[in-house]
Amino acid sequence: MKKIGLAIISLLLLLSGCTGKEQSNKSAEKKKELKKVTVVLDWTPNTNHTGLYVAKAKGYFEQEGLDVDIIQPGEAGADQLVASGKAEFGVSYQEGVTLARIQGVPLVSIAAVIQHNTSGFASPVAKNIKSPKDFEGHTYGGWGSPIEKSVITSLMEQEHADVKKVDIINIGDTDFFTAVKRDIDFAWIYYGWTGIESELRGEKLNMIYLTDYSKKLDYYTPVLTSNEKMIKEKPETVKAFMKAAAKGYKYAIKNPDDSAQILIKAAPDLNENLVKKSQEWLSPKYQDDAKEWGYQSKEVWDNYATWMYDHGLLEKKLDSEKAFTNEFLPK
Questions:
Q1: Whether residue 222 has a cis bond before it, omega within 30° of 0
Q2: In this model, does residue 12 exceed pLDDT 90?
Q3: Which tens digit of pLDDT belongs to each residue from 195-211?
Q4: How far is CA 288 from CA 54, 276, 320, in A?
Q5: Distance, C-alpha 44 to centroid of its chain
Q6: What SS3 string covers 123-165?
């Protein structure tokens, strides 16, 4: 009896080992079957990207047959990597896609991450900059793009102010809070990140939102992108990616706290309090008043491109219908 018992145990162990191997093989096969794609961020991970991290953590991408690698941009930015086909998807902004299209670069916006422009010019309350006219006599710190002066000019003109009285300097990647204490008076920020950080620091800001002064400056920033070749040759992959990404952002809209924790786990170097507060502020703004998350309006694309053209920032007018698509948004 003892020998029979040992034989049964040995058989069970053998069968158990076989089952374990089979499950392991099936898991490996399933992983092998997934289509590997890459998403390049526009910057370091932040709450603009939460929906992507949610889609990855909750298995939404995997459910759509995708193995998605989310990476930060290196020396070559997201636009270059996506346009060249070295990455399938990326995070960009309407200005970048517009400039790319004018130069013949086949970049296409496939979804608006945030429905309205949440950026503007910020300054410490002590600087007393409450309107574009107050830019006069102050120093602006930017990143060296010609669009910055055009936007400042556009806002100041509405108050009959003189942009020549503004000192515009390039501060590169210098931290906003360091720069306004040392080198500059105001800068262009996204309130959903830097503005929320100012609240946590107890450093009050005056904020001049672009959308308060011009409908044409209510453009999409950021957006998700792909390229023409990908869209033409692998539409099913684009559709699968967008279905999962949309599900991730919709989850973040309804569950800001849990979504913040997912982002923190994926990027543990981030300030936990900042991520939580930023997510709470930003989640309702992903879809806002649009009929669905990710939707892009031709009017918004035309308005901003016209503004850029009128201010000498484009060599020719944009064919906006080729610059963006709503085709891959989940129905």
A1: yes
A2: no
A3: 999 999 999 999 999 99
A4: 19, 19, 23
A5: 10
A6: EEHHHCCCCHHHHCCCEEEECCCHHHHHHHHHHHHCCCCCHHH
The letter for the amino acid at 231 is I
CA distance 195 to 317: 34
pTM of full prediction above 0.85: yes
Beta strand 119-124 with 186-190: parallel, antiparallel or unpaired? antiparallel
* Token pair recorded at residue 315: 């060599």
For the chain, the 3-state helix, strand and coil shares in percent, each to the nearest 5, are 55, 15, 30
Distance of CA 187 to the CA centre of its chain: 20
Task: Grade residue 3 by pLDDT with cuts at 50, 70 and 90.
Answer: very low
pLDDT (0 to 100) of residue 331: 84
**DSSP assigned state of 327:** T
Q: What does the alpha-carbon distance between residue 284 and residue 192 come to, in Å, rounded to a whole number?
A: 11
Q: How far apart are CA 19 and CA 37, in angstroms?
A: 31
Digit-coded pLDDT (tens) for 71-101: 999 888 999 999 999 999 999 999 999 999 9
> What is the total residue count of the chain?
331
Give 83's strand partners.
none
Mean pLDDT value of segment 180-192: 97
Q: Cα dihedral sign for 267, 201, 189, 165? A: negative
- The alpha carbon of residue 243 and the mean position of all alpha carbons in its chain are separated, in whole angstroms, by 17
Distance between CA 221 and CA 189 in Å, rounded?
12
